[in-house]
Design goal:
The chain has helices spanning 14-28, 38-47, 64-74, 89-97, 106-111, 114-132, 149-157, 174-186, 205-210, 213-224, 229-258, 262-265, 276-285, 314-323, 343-351, 386-400, 423-439, 455-461, and strands spanning 6-10, 31-35, 52-56, 58-59, 62-63, 80-84, 102-105, 303-308, 331-337, 355-361, 375-380, 406-412, 442-448, 467-472, 475-478. It is α/β, with parallel strands linked by helices. Among the domains are: 6-129, Response regulator (Rossmann fold), CATH 3.40.50.2300; 303-479, 3-Layer(aba) Sandwich (Rossmann fold), CATH 3.40.50. The strands form three sheets. The chain has an eight-stranded mixed sheet, sandwiched between helices. The chain is globular, with a radius of gyration of 24 Å. 41% of the residues are buried. This is Response regulator.
């Protein structure tokens, strides 16, 4: 789409709608129309070309579901973002089953328009690509031929929550279930989260490293779960990782402070680290394309957190690299998508893999005909249902463990979880989930968009991962190296 997207902003408060439309128009050059109720919104949709609808859920006597019903009846592929905050969980479930493309916290707009603007541009670009893709009969899809989230879910599972191979619901993964039960409790603020009443959402990695070790272990154990032995053991192991990171950072700083002469910089000695890795870093950091950091370990069981803008062209190259599709060995790949993937990119991954399974969470995914034999899609309608995500993922790894080829997992984007879970709930889920993936021998890469999430929240999750990779204007970097 060459021109900026044309938006319809729907809000029962006309002043709020006008104010936000003015910001989106003046600061981001969108063409924005407004409506204050469902009837006015319907008229605008019928009279004008609209690329994306942004609507409050509460619209006077009506609600966003009434608007969705009209949109899906005549504009099936039109992206619709519903703005919600503190609505019951069933509202989110009903919204997605009615065809909402995304739910977005209205409170985030008060802090910054950037995440909303970026999401609008993503959705409108995807909508344009979907309209241009050939359908199964060889024709390009028109908006009337594009399928809604509800239709995709119905076609894959007969109208239920998910579709999977026989037996995929199998025995319940008790660890994942226990994790989610704790998540529900974690979403309610706790009275005592650490020995010093410190909340994990108030800490970043540096502050965690600065805590006395016993307090750090107590805090981590509180976040992970009850003060039972497994939680304490896990907390102690994580604390060792954090302490090591701090010690490494301090050693690096001391080495940099003492190593000041140019001649020393290039002369390796028995007592001082060589500067050659730094020279190598300069090469790949200044490279305009993606190159894997030289110290990144991708052995089975490794977990990587990747900080990268969703608009960065290097993101797809990074994902392909971390999935191992550029290697000669066959790969079994599990893609967990909180947003649909570009079909050309999905095809490129599938063509280089032995088999691919896509678990879509709160979105739908089209599969190109050319790779439909090797790609299986399973849908989870409710983005808050991490229990089912854990069960499906771990069962997939169990099924694949006896097969040839390595196993790789990619989750994108992780920041969507923050809309449905507290920081503590997300931390608790990932602690269990990443452990399951590592035990299954998978190389797991989780992508987070820095501009769409609170840096403090992301920093809180970093101790859970083996590596933190950042792809930004400075290049491709690995924390702690």
């Amino acid at each position: 789409m060459d021109a900026e997207p044309r938006l319809l902003y729907v809000d029962a408060d006309a002043d709020t709608a006008a104010s936000r439309a003015e910001t989106l128009s003046a600061d981001y050059e969108f063409e924005v129309r407004t409506a204050s109720d469902v009837a006015t919104a319907k008229a605008a949709l019928d009279a004008h070309d609209i690329d994306c609808v942004i609507s409050e859920f509460r619209l006077g006597d009506d609600d966003g579901l009434d608007l969705l019903s009209h949109v899906r009846s005549g504009h099936s592929s039109l992206p619709v973002i519903l703005l919600i905050d503190d609505e019951p969980e069933e509202i989110a479930r009903d919204a997605f089953s009615s065809g909402a493309t995304d739910l977005f916290p209205r409170s985030m707009i008060e802090l910054s328009y950037e995440p909303l603007v970026e999401r609008i541009r993503e959705l409108t670009a995807e909508s344009t690509e979907a309209a241009a893709e050939p359908s199964a009969d060889g024709e390009k899809q028109t908006p009337d031929k594009a399928r809604t989230t509800e239709e995709v879910a119905a076609s894959t599972d007969g109208g239920g929550t998910e579709a999977s191979t026989p037996g995929s619901s199998g025995p319940t993964d008790t660890t994942a279930t226990e994790s989610t039960a704790s998540d529900d409790a974690a979403d309610t603020p706790a009275a005592d989260k650490s020995t010093n009443d410190l909340s994990v959402s108030d800490l970043d990695l540096e502050e965690l490293q600065a805590l006395p070790k016993d307090e750090l272990i107590a805090l981590l154990a509180k976040i992970i779960g009850d003060d039972d032995e497994p939680a304490t053991e896990s907390a102690e192991a994580m604390a060792e990782t954090i302490d090591t990171s701090a010690a490494d950072s301090q050693s690096s700083a001391q080495a940099a402070a003492t190593d000041t002469t140019p001649s020393d910089t290039n002369t390796p000695t028995a007592d001082a680290p060589t500067a050659e890795p730094d020279a190598d870093d300069t090469v790949w950091e200044t490279n305009e394309g993606y190159q894997r950091p030289p110290n990144l370990d991708l052995s089975p069981g490794t977990t990587i957190l990747v900080q990268c803008s969703s608009q960065d062209a290097r993101k797809h190259d990074a994902r392909r690299d971390l999935l191992g599709v550029t290697e000669a060995d066959d790969r079994n790949i599990l893609l967990i998508q909180y947003r649909s993937m570009n079909t050309d990119r999905l095809a490129a991954i599938a063509e280089a893999a032995q088999r691919v399974k896509v678990i879509t969470v709160g979105c739908s995914q089209s599969v190109p005909t050319a790779v439909s034999d090797t790609v299986e899609v399973v849908n989870i309608n409710n983005p808050n249902d991490v229990t089912r995500l854990g069960i499906l993922s771990t069962k997939t790894l169990d099924d694949w463990r006896a097969l040839d080829g390595g196993i790789a997992v990619s989750l994108d984007p992780l920041d969507v979880l923050f809309r449905y879970k507290s920081v503590e709930g997300t931390f608790r889920f990932l602690h269990i989930f990443l452990g399951k993936l590592s035990a299954g021998g998978a190389v797991s890469s989780f992508f987070v968009n820095p501009s769409a999430s609170n840096p403090q929240d992301v920093n809180t999750l970093k101790p859970l991962f083996d590596h933190i990779m950042t792809v930004d204007a400075g290049g491709v970097d690995l924390e702690g190296t």
